[in-house]
């Protein structure tokens, strides 16, 4: 029997149709990969499944129960074992890891519940991420984003009053480095082999092909293809999504033929950058890269007042914590970095602000029909586009990027890569930390971090996936 069935489900927000005539079901043991570009309807789709959203029309059937369109099904979804890990992490930052487990664990005994919660979450963490080293008594706000994502995943899979039957994972590896992501993918396979089911949303097509038994392709709020993974290749999957992803050789050729200007950055740890250079920060997550980015940014932007001539601009990867103004509009979020350029005293030239927002709306393809809509009305990937636009619209000569491609689809990534390369050719310098090897390979020079120190500097043909892995895992002390 299917765990859940959707029949002719539609969801509308006013005049905007987020889902149209969606039919879907998932059986025990299946891992269904869900792909589609930003704004394709993936988040709305899974929020109907987990009961957070009621469909405007259609039927949601949980393990044999008919639920009409006007019935909110969150409690029913919970009782049949449906759990979710959202792209925007939902942990309470002021609580400890084990206290966050206590919130969904309704039947935990009152006596000594902390001890039991600590044991449950530690067991789940160790099963999924061996050697993780996360203390269940740690406050979530004190954890790096990769560990917060690991905690949320572990809580979703944890054994409690109702066992997990279907776990929805929305971009679960977006903050994880390669080795930790591999641990998760291995666990997903084991979970499905034991009869569990997964809905796996990712822009990392390699991960989709690795774990999925079936792939659902979404576009404009519809399921346009639903087939076994063996029926797809990477090219046919990209074609089905409706966005042509350019090959990268021309970018690599352009990279090799470039020259750079004078040195514009040098730090005490040996990291340096020249004008027009794209510098990559590699290594396992949590090994000091974020601290270096923060030090570089704060050293050049310590004034609390915005400058008309900023020296550095920052693109956050953890957009909810470090990037977005959640109560503001899309336009206000986009123009924040450049408002001082449009102002005289306390007066802001709204015409120039709107012109800037319109220009970047078109240039980077933010999917909205009204820039005055709330920023949270956008999908995660489109929110990230706004942060990129905010940074690139400024005049700062140095752009610092902290794993900025989280939740951005493959086609948009290629467009952003080209935009970064174009800006670099004009003399802009980029400092780019990423957990994705493909992004590090786009850089002109790479510094590999381990245990808070730079252990290797790679240039030119030395920047390969093999060398990055070797130096990250201390398998080789130097690159010959």
Features:
six-stranded mixed β-sheet, 17 helices, 2 domains, 480 residues, Rossmann fold, ABC_transporter-like_CS, alpha/beta
Task: Compile the SSE list and pairings.
Layout lengths: L3 E10 L2 E11 L4 E5 L6 H8 L7 E6 L2 E3 L6 H6 L2 E4 L11 H6 L10 H16 L16 H13 L8 E5 L7 H16 L3 E5 L3 H7 L2 E6 L2 E7 L5 H8 L7 H8 L6 E4 L5 E3 L3 E5 L6 H12 L11 E4 L3 H4 L7 H6 L7 E2 L2 E2 L1 H15 L15 H13 L5 E5 L7 H16 L3 E5 L3 H4 L4 E6 L2 E7 L5 H8 L8
Parallel strand pairs: 3-8, 3-9, 6-7, 7-8, 13-18, 13-19, 14-17, 17-18
Antiparallel strand pairs: 1-2, 1-4, 4-5, 9-10, 11-12, 15-16, 19-20
Helix pairs in contact: 4-5
Explain what you see.
By secondary structure, this protein is of the alpha/beta class. The protein folds into two domains: about 5-240, Rossmann fold (3-Layer(aba) Sandwich), CATH 3.40.50; about 250-470, Rossmann fold (3-Layer(aba) Sandwich). The chain is about 35% helix and about 20% strand. The protein is built from 17 helices and 20 strands. The chain has helices spanning about 40-50, 75-80, 95-100, 115-130, 145-155, 180-195, 205-210, 235-240, 250-255, 290-300, 320, 330-335, 350-365, 380-390, 410-425, 435-440, 465-470; strands at about 5-15, 15-25, 30-35, 55-60, 65, 80-85, 165-170, 195-200, 215-220, 220-230, 265, 270-275, 280, 310-315, 345, 345-350, 400, 430-435, 445-450, 455-460. It has a six-stranded mixed sheet, with helices on both faces. A six-stranded mixed sheet has the order 14-17-18-13-19-20, sandwiched between helices. Strand 11 (about 265) and strand 12 form a beta hairpin. Helix 4 crosses helix 5 (about 145-155). The longest helix is centred in the N-terminal third of the chain and has 16 residues, at about 115-130. The radius of gyration is 23 Å and the shape is globular. This is ABC transporter ATP-binding protein.
């Amino acid at each position: 029997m299917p765990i859940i069935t959707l029949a002719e489900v539609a969801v509308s927000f006013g005049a905007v149709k987020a889902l149209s005539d969606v039919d879907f079901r998932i059986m025990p043991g299946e891992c269904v990969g869900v792909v589609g570009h930003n704004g394709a309807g993936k988040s709305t789709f899974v929020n109907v499944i987990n009961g957070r959203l009621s469909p405007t029309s259609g039927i949601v059937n949980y393990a044999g129960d008919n639920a009409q369109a006007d019935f909110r099904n969150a409690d029913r979804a919970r009782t049949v074992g449906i759990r979710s890990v959202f792209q925007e992490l939902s942990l309470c930052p002021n609580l400890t890891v084990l206290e966050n487990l206590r919130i969904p664990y309704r039947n935990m005994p009152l006596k000594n519940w902390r001890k039991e919660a600590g044991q449950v979450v530690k067991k789940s963490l160790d099963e999924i991420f061996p050697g993780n080293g996360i203390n269940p008594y740690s406050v979530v706000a004190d954890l790096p984003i990769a560990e917060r994502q690991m905690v949320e995943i572990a809580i979703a899979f944890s054994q409690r009053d109702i066992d997990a039957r279907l776990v929805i994972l929305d971009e679960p590896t977006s903050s994880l480095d390669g080795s930790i992501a591999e641990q998760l993918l291995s666990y997903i396979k084991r979970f499905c082999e034991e009869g569990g089911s997964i809905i796996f949303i990712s822009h990392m097509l390699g991960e989709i092909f690795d774990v999925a038994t079936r792939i659902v392709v979404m576009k404009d709020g519809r399921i346009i293809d639903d087939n076994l993974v063996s029926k797809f290749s990477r090219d046919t999957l990209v074609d089905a999504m409706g966005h042509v992803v350019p090959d990268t050789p021309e970018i690599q050729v352009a990279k090799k033929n470039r020259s750079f200007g004078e040195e514009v950055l040098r730090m005490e740890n040996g990291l340096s950058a020249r004008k027009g250079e794209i510098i990559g920060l590699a290594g396992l997550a949590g090994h000091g890269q974020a601290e270096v980015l923060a030090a570089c940014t704060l050293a050049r932007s310590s004034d609390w007042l915005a400058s008309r001539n900023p020296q550095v601009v920052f693109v956050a990867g953890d957009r909810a914590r470090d990037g977005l103004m959640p109560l503001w509009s899309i336009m206000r979020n986009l123009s924040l970095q450049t408002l001082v350029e449009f102002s005289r005293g306390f007066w802001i030239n709204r015409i120039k602000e709107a012109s800037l927002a319109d220009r970047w709306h078109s240039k980077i393809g933010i999917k909205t029909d009204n820039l005055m809509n709330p920023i949270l009305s956008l999908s995660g990937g489109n929110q990230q586009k706004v942060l990129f636009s905010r940074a690139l619209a400024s005049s700062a000569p140095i752009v610092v990027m902290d794993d900025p491609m989280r939740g951005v689809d493959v086609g948009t990534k290629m467009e952003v890569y080209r935009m970064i390369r174009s800006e670099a050719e004009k003399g802009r310098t980029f400092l780019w930390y990423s957990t994705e090897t493909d992004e590090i390979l786009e850089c002109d020079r790479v510094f590999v971090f381990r245990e808070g120190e730079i252990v290797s500097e790679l240039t030119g043909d030395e920047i390969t996936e093999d060398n990055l892995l070797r130096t990250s895992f201390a398998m080789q002390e130097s690159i010959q």
